[in-house]
Amino acid sequence: MKLLEVKDVTKNYPGTEILSHIELSLAPGESLAILGRSGSGKTTLLNLLAGLDTPDSGEIYFDQKPIHTLKESELAQLRGKHMGFVFQSYRLLEALTALENVCLPLELLEKDHAIQTASDLLAKLGLESKINQFPHRLSGGEQQRVAIARAIVHQPKLIIADEPTGNLDHRTGREVSDLLIESCKKFNIALLVATHDTELANKVEKRVELFDGVLKSV
Ligand SMILES: Nc1ncnc2c1ncn2[C@@H]1O[C@H](COP(=O)(O)OP(=O)(O)O)[C@@H](O)[C@H]1O
Ligand SMILES: [Mg+2]
Q1: What is the per-residue pLDDT for 80?
Q2: What average pLDDT does this structure show over 153-176?
Q3: Whose CA, among 36, 139, 174, 200, lies 20 to 30 Å from 21?
Q4: Whole-angstrom Cα distance, residue 5 to residue 167?
């Protein structure tokens, strides 16, 4: 059974075909890197898969559900429960501490013991001494580790990571990508990661590349 299936998806912006007849599938717990130069459509593709944008044609199934036809309220529920997101620019809430940022997905799902779960996870990710810090007091690598904790704390089925090492130096990028991959393996979470970082791409199970709107295995 597939966690994610993309069938013949095409997406155009005025005057350009960004994604052309994309076919893609991902099994539960599987990891896939999407490579491609800047502007090749990686973020556009991830947005379609997350239901943040709609394809011009084709079908996208997440956990058997046709996300290309779901209502915004259903999509929001599905994202909150079954997906986690990691971005190049971390996107932590600046007014909340590291711990509060990580608690948020659990609170939205009305889970019990949110503070305990979030602080245990932060400790496992080596951030025990930082839990009460606000994001601006953390380094880029630390902020990204908090963002990874936030993405996995509710044990989603899929993590979507868009250039997660793009703002980090080489060594920190390596630490963060190892953490992301290990965390997904440990909790059996599937990982879709758009990246320029070939070292990161080579550490995941499968690789595809977007070029001129077409997706090819590499
Ligand atoms: N909302 C939009 N309207 C028009 N063009 C867009 C929009 N979003 C992205 N694009 C264009 O689509 C192309 C692919 O962008 P993007 O998916 O962000 O690429 P990548 O993430 O691989 O760098 C780029 O040429 C970009 O300028
Ligand atoms: Mg992008």
Answers
A1: 97
A2: 96
A3: 200
A4: 30
**Parallel/antiparallel/unpaired status of strands 4-13 and 57-62:** antiparallel
Helix, strand or coil, per DSSP, at residue 11: strand
- What pLDDT does 16 receive? 92
Q: Is 92 in contact with 146 (CB distance < 8 Å)?
A: yes
Q: How far is the CA of 44 from the centre of ligand 1 (A)?
A: 6
Closest residue by CA, ligand 1 atom 7: 13
Architecture of domain 4-217: 3-Layer(aba) Sandwich (3.40)
Average pLDDT along the chain: 97
**In whole angstroms, what is the distance from residue 177 CA to residue 174 CA?**
5
Residue 108: the pLDDT is: 96
Q: In the beta sheet, which residues pair with residue 7?
A: 59
User: With a threshold of 0.90, does the pTM exceed it?
Assistant: yes
C-alpha 64 chain-centroid distance: 19
**Cα separation, 31 vs 98, whole angstroms:** 27
Nearest to 163 by CA among 85, 53, 77: 85
Top mutation candidate among 11, 13, 37 for ligand 1, by most atoms within 8 Å of CB: 13
The values of phi and psi at residue 114, to 5°, are -60, -45
User: Residue 75 is inside which H or E element, if any?
Assistant: helix 72-82
